[in-house]
Fold this sequence. Notes:
By secondary structure, the chain is mainly alpha-helical. The longest helix is centred in the first third of the chain and has 41 residues, at 2-42. The protein has 2 domains: 1-43; 54-128, Dna Ligase, domain 1. The protein is built from 5 helices and 2 strands; from the N terminus they run αβααβαα.
Amino acid sequence: xxxxxxxxxxxxxxxxxxxxxxxxxxxxxxxxxxxxxxxxxxxxxxxxxxxxxxxxxxxxxxxxxxxxxxxxxxxxxxxxxxxxxxxxxxxxxxxxxxxxxxxxxxxxxxxxxxxxxxxxxxxxxxxxx
Length: 129
């Protein structure tokens, strides 16, 4: 009987220890992802270093913000479509995307891509002249 109690006690200890380890790993992973997510939202980095690669794309007038973000990710212009959608909302570009044909570069930041897709880049160039 005593051997069974000891075995049961050891088994419960191992089970509890395993659960604690899994919870600690889960908390660590959640913190790591949260940091990456927050950093990606506020940092304005590009996918590639200059000179990058030019990529052509077309925006249709019936495309949603989600479809645009997924297209940009699929073409390799952004790293994460969800983060780009949030960046659009935070930077007030959500309703400013204009349909048309564009040539974007993988060395462009998310903010630069937003400016081009909204037509605001052309306005800034005109003001400089």
